[in-house]
Write a structure and sequence with these properties.
Elements: H1 10-21, E1 47-50, H2 55-67, E2 71-73, H3 90-95, E3 100-105, E4 110-117, E5 126-131, H4 134-150, E6 159-166, E7 172-179, E8 186-187, E9 195-200, E10 206-213, E11 215-221, E12 228-231, E13 237-242, E14 249-253, E15 260-264, E16 270-273, E17 281-286, E18 291-296, E19 303-308, E20 315-316, E21 324-329, E22 338-344, E23 350-356, E24 362-364, E25 372-377, E26 383-388, E27 391-396, E28 403-407, E29 410-414
Parallel strand pairs: 1-2, 1-3
Antiparallel strand pairs: 3-4, 4-5, 6-7, 6-29, 7-8, 9-10, 10-11, 11-12, 13-14, 14-15, 15-16, 17-18, 18-19, 19-20, 21-22, 22-23, 23-24, 25-26, 26-27, 27-28
Amino acid sequence: MKLSLVGTSFLATALVAGAFWAGSPVAVANANNASQPTTVDGQFRLLRVGIPADGRIGDLLRKNAQISSGFEVIDRRSMGALAKAQSFSAKGWSALGADVVILADTSGAQIKLRMYELSKGERPVLSRGYAKDELVAANKFMNEVINHYTGEPGVFGSRIAFVRTQRRPSVSKNVQSVEMNGEAPAAITSNRSLNILPSIGPGGQVLFTSYAKRNPDLWVSRGGGQPQRISKYPGLNLGGVMSPDGGTIVVALSKDGNSELYALNPSGGIKARLTNNSAIDGSPSFSSGGQIAFVSSRAGGPQIFRMSAAGGQAARVTKKGTYNQSPDWSQGRSSGQWIAYTGRDSSNRYDIFKVNVQTGALVRLTQNPGRNLDPSWSPDGRLISYYRDGGVFVANSDGNNQVQVVRGATTPDWGPRAY
């Protein structure tokens, strides 16, 4: 799909295209900084959505609509009597400038959610009922909304793992996770050691490196019970990631004196050595098509390379910049097309970039104050998470619509779909 002039995501483009075909007028599109143009070909704009529900269900629906990157959420305080309405009034919502309205009925043991498009009349275009769990209902309905406009369900309910640092009584780092909208926090580790570099596998397993036994070993948490140490070779056991089928873990080991990439089986036994170079190799990331992106110093400073998941000849991916690291290969519709990474520019600013592995096209996704680090794609490739200013942010696939979802968190990794 051809991207807009301001680089809206696939989701946002699809949603605003729906507004255009409904005959909506020209308005402003999202941009991640004021220097970008604010219109797209003079036609498209974000859909204005009204969500009048109060309480937790209303808060969650509005949060999810904002994070989705496709909606401009109407402030509930501006709705007047519509904020209390239980039925749909096309005339009233039209006067408020809404394109879409989502209503919630939480009476009884069920939550009923309905979505109306003003261009389609008085009947809902979506109507679903859920058991009375506000978070699950809000997530599943937003996934249905995204499916309505794009033909593919959203990924609300998926989780992001991250590291949180505590400095008292001594410095410790522990791995935690939240749902992609910042809800339902959970602890993966809870100790006084250093637990770093989490990576979520296809079945929800969380790999991480821990100093709990003094050496930086590779551990896994498979949900419930205590994490297990699976790789304890002398030296570094760093940055483990699991293949899409769950059958292989790739990790950087320095057991032979130099950091090289190895393939392990799920219990930690070595299957193969993947790199054999005097340079430092690390930070692997799987594609869904049988390749691995990784960082290597073999070109001087750290650069992004790629190779077969079975090892062999490596090809350089990043050709610009002298310090590029922490690659993450896109999934979903854009699977295999983009690798996001952290790059340092000529002014020593760290920002998120993405490079097209087929064409070499390079896109800068962030240009914010401070450090922007450690990108991780959503499982459908429409959104991206990253670290900035002491927290984890989520943006669309071109860096627009930046929303903070976790505070006091670093090194995010986005896991698979939940539903």
